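Notes from hallway chat w/ T.B., transcribed later so I don't forget. T.B. wanted the structure written out for a chain they're using in a teaching module, and asked if we could keep both sequence and structure tokens in one place. Agreed to drop them here.
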Amino acid sequence: MHCRYGRRRGDQREIPMLEEKKTVLIVDNEQGFHDLFRFVLEPLGFEVHSAYDGTDGLERVRKQNYSIVFLDVHMPKMTGPELLKEIKKIKPGQFVVMMSSGSDPKQAFERTAKELGAADCMFKPFDIEQLMTHISRVK
């Protein structure tokens, strides 16, 4: 079974539906990003979990295994980089993508995130194709 996505009718791409359910954790204080991830990923067979601050995100990672975790940089209670450090202490192999608003022409954010253990970085706003690129890297 396949699902189609794309901006225009002729520009649609097919993505296979998942054989086994994969879990995704979104840690971001903006509701709109949680809604976007659910809208895109749940029809493909992903189970999407939400945390709205770093402390809640850390508790969720302690209690459950996730296929991929998306972290925002700026959050209440614990920043994305602080949370990433804690996640890597308890689950060193966790696949994490760090998200940030705005561009980073000097790539300082990307360097720092990768030094802390992020698999990759995304800049807001991002399109569905960028999201799917990261999702496709999950085993």
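Follow-up for T.B.: The beta strands are 2-5, 13-16, 23-27, 47-51, 68-72, 96-101, 120-124. Might be a good example for the class.
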